[in-house]
Specification:
It is built from 13 helices and 17 strands. The protein has about 475 residues and is α/β, with parallel strands linked by helices. The chain folds into three domains: about 160 residues, P-loop containing nucleotide triphosphate hydrolases (Rossmann fold, 3-Layer(aba) Sandwich); about 180 residues, P-loop containing nucleotide triphosphate hydrolases (Rossmann fold); about 80 residues, K homology (KH) domain (GMP Synthetase, Chain A, domain 3, 2-Layer Sandwich). The strands form four sheets. Strands 2-3-1-4-5-6 form a six-stranded mixed β-sheet, with helices on both faces. It has a six-stranded mixed β-sheet with strand order 8-9-7-10-11-12, with helices on both faces. A three-stranded mixed β-sheet has the order 15-16-17. About 40% of the residues are buried.
Length: about 475
């Protein structure tokens, strides 16, 4: 079983910087201001020959348990309870502060092995802080610099007694859980045992974290009435009816014009990355104020990234006329979201736990449609009928000639159209073909790509 190492300490001692160094990727948001990390984040870490799971946590603060800082502290205490060994970090350059001693007592009372890590000790800086740290009673401090990597061998030596050796993974296994979906891939290359990657996005305070907590059945994500609590994109593994899933909870995304702070820009960039590496994206709307302009922007963004889309109507328990509103919203979606016409709209309530099965079924259905392949023979029988019903228009007195069509790939369904003068094919006619494809081959709600492949004109040879 893989050992778990928790990074614990007050705010701004460098826990997220060390987390990124151990996992080898910039997964956790890092900024100079204290208190950036709120949710606990897990990752697979490597240090020399050691392989273990590392947990980045929010900075410990004294606060009322019902406040945001108090709820963050509860998340950190959960990480301590899960850990096999605790890395208690201090800022060596700043030295001990009044907060360090009570928190050192907290980790000592946990009964878990504790390693005292004096971070920011690069060069000769921090010598006084290192000497002060002996008073915490946690043993000899390990001088370290998470930013520059100094002291790695000392940290390796300190961790080695608590982490059993594991055989090294080959390259394929090591990347098995990396959240990267290749939009140019094909379904024949899929590993059936690999989790389906589902990213949940939406405006701030749409209830994304509450929904994820209800889905997995535990208070994994930090939630509350405050908007914008989530900052990092957090992934959790889950299984639904025997199907493995990896759920990604993201920070709320506001209109670009309203985003000014650097930290919010980093959070949004993290959310955009989660969309690009997803296979299915659930766009979560607040049912009490649905289809705001930002909601439409997020659906359009997901479609442009070529990801399967499902729309979740959260806070459905607050709606009075449920049937009337659902019919109205489906009609609105038909007109406002033509690029994903037929997208599934699922009413649900993250707090009450209503509609989660329907949402998961919609996710699986959207994924299957996204992976669908259609034989060339069927496509061209359809094309013949579509051209007969509505022939392409003439350009400069010459009719555009469409010869045949084939599906180039799936994920999303992508078709190649062959013929002459296709560069002059009007957008309206391309839209007609896409809509007819969607209806004839049951491709609701998924992005469809149509590429034009024109024939070579022999009389154009030699011309520039």
């Amino acid at each position: 079983m893989t050992a778990i190492v928790a990074l614990i300490g007050r705010p701004n001692v460098g826990k997220s910087t060390l987390f990124n160094r151990l996992v080898g990727k910039k997964l956790a948001l890092v900024d100079d201001r204290p208190g950036v990390t709120r949710d606990r984040r897990e990752g697979d870490a490597t240090l020399g020959h050691l392989r273990f799971k590392v947990i980045d946590t929010a900075g410990l603060e004294d606060a009322d348990k019902d406040s945001l800082a108090g709820r963050m502290r509860a998340q950190t205490e959960t990480a301590i309870a899960q850990a096999d060994v605790v890395l208690f970090m201090i800022d060596a350059r700043l030295g001990l502060t009044p907060m360090d001693q009570p928190f050192a007592d907290l980790v000592r009372r946990s009964g878990k092995p504790v390693i005292l890590l004096a971070n920011k000790a690069e060069g000769k800086k921090g010598t006084e802080g290192i000497m002060e740290s002996y008073s915490l009673g946690l043993g000899d401090p390990v001088p370290f610099s998470a930013e520059h990597g100094e002291g790695t061998s000392d940290l390796l030596e300190a961790l080695a007694p608590f982490i059993p050796d594991e055989p090294e993974e080959d390259e394929e296994e090591a990347w098995a859980d990396v959240p990267a979906a290749d939009s140019d891939g094909d379904e024949e290359d899929l590993d059936p045992d690999r989790p389906l990657r589902v990213t949940i996005i939406g405006r701030p305070n749409a209830g994304k974290s509450t929904l994820v907590n209800r889905i997995i059945g535990e208070e994994r994500m930090l939630t509350g009435p405050e908007a914008g609590i989530t900052r990092d994109t957090i992934s959790v593994d889950w299984e639904w009816r025997g199907r493995k899933l990896k759920l990604f909870d993201t920070a709320g995304m506001r209109k670009r014009a309203r985003i000014e702070e650097k930290l919010e820009k980093l959070s949004v960039a993290d959310s955009l990355r989660a969309i690009r590496f997803a296979e299915v994206v659930v766009v979560l709307l607040d049912a009490t104020i649905p289809f705001e302009k930002q909601d439409l922007t997020l659906v359009d963004l997901t479609e442009r990234e070529g990801r399967a889309v499902v729309i979740g109507l959260n806070k459905w328990d607050l709606v009075a006329d449920k049937q009337g509103l659902l019919a109205e919203l489906k009609e609105k979606a038909h007109h406002l979201l033509a690029q994903v016409r037929g997208v599934q709209i699922v009413p649900l309530s993250g707090i009450a736990g209503e509609g989660i099965d329907r949402l998961m079924q919609a996710v699986i259905t959207a994924y299957d449609v996204w992976n669908r392949r259609i034989s060339t023979a069927r496509i061209n029988r359809w094309l013949e009928g579509a051209l007969s019903a509505h022939p392409p228009p003439a350009v400069a007195g010459r009719r555009i000639k469409i010869r045949y069509m084939t599906q180039a790939k799936a994920r999303p369904p992508t078709f190649a159209l062959f013929g002459n003068q296709l560069d002059h094919l009007p957008v309206s006619y391309t839209r007609y073909l896409v809509n007819s494809l969607r209806e004839s081959f049951e491709l609701p709600g998924t992005p469809i790509r149509l590429h034009r492949r024109g024939g070579e004109n022999p009389f154009d040879k030699g011309r520039k």
